[in-house]
Amino acid sequence: TSESILDANQRTLETLHDFLESNADTVRFREKLEESYYFREFDAEKDFNLDFIFRQVPTIFNVSDSERIGMVSSDLVNKELVCRYEETKPGSISEHSLKTAIKASAGSLEELLANDPAPTENKDDASFQKKIMPWEMMLESDIDLTKNLVRHNRRRNDLIVVASLVDRLPNLAGLCRTCEIFNAGLLTVHNLKVKDDQNFLGISVSSEKWMPMKEVTEPDVAAFLTEKKAEGYLLCGLEQTTTSTPLQEFDFPRKCVLLLGKEKEGVPAHLLQMLDHTIEIPQFGITRSLNVHVSASICIYEYTKRQLTG
């Protein structure tokens, strides 16, 4: 019985082999595979290392610069990097295999091994989701380096979001994330210790590392508004009042303070009287009002859009 099974398997394999050898489509496919560097030249022992995986492969296949691991991060995890010139170091990609890979990808050795290769245009019209964290932000040393660069070189909008009346951590964390994404100049909160709360960090997803924040307690909000008014800011509040301007009709000034009310009570009366304008988001459903974070995000986006479009 065992011999009959082996004979049957042998006949099946022979039939399959004959088909693969004679069928025109399979012959063309096999020849194409045999032309590939990875089937013909790639040395699994000499070529397959960390530098090849995280730096050379993305370069060969035109991966976006923001998705490649940079030299700072690469040095921390792999001390024996591929040299940028003709000679290669022990333990890195073999020179012969590397040249073959370059030839197959129609590139040059200098292009493949350059520290900061020029980005290449992706000619594929397909749409892909691209919510990634750049490699350079994945290690703490790179975060510290990037954070310092952001602080010194980034020009922020003249929008101050006053969230000192907002109590709930999810709303504050969401506001921090929104303000950072849309490049607001400052976010005030009632207590800066909220940034140490794990619930806050889980929603802000590192935005607190980049977003300028200031502690302004509820009793100090009036004085803060007065100070910003003297600095030339227009004081705006997000609230439904008898004199509110619909959001789509409001012309945001460049220097703008956006005051957010409490989750349930809204903007207190004594602060309402200090404002130059109140803004209202048109609503068409039955529910009375939007969540404070959602409302603020809509306004922050509208402010940013107006600044971009002039």
TrEMBL record:
Key words of the record: Methyltransferase, Transferase
InterPro entries reported in the protein's UniProt record: Alpha/beta_knot_MTases, SpoU_MeTrfase, TRM3/TARBP1, Trm3/TARBP1_C, tRNA_m1G_MTases_N
Domain of life where this protein originates: Eukaryota
Domain tRNA/rRNA methyltransferase SpoU type: 159-301
Coiled-coil stretches noted in the UniProt entry, renumbered to this chain: none
The keyword Transferase appears for this protein: yes
SUPFAM superfamilies: alpha/beta knot
Gene Ontology BP, a term: tRNA methylation
Record bears the keyword Methyltransferase: yes
GO molecular function: RNA binding; tRNA (guanine) methyltransferase activity
Protein name: tRNA/rRNA methyltransferase SpoU type domain-containing protein
Species in which this protein is naturally found: Umbelopsis vinacea
Lineage summary: Eukaryota, Fungi, Fungi incertae sedis, Mucoromycota, Mucoromycotina
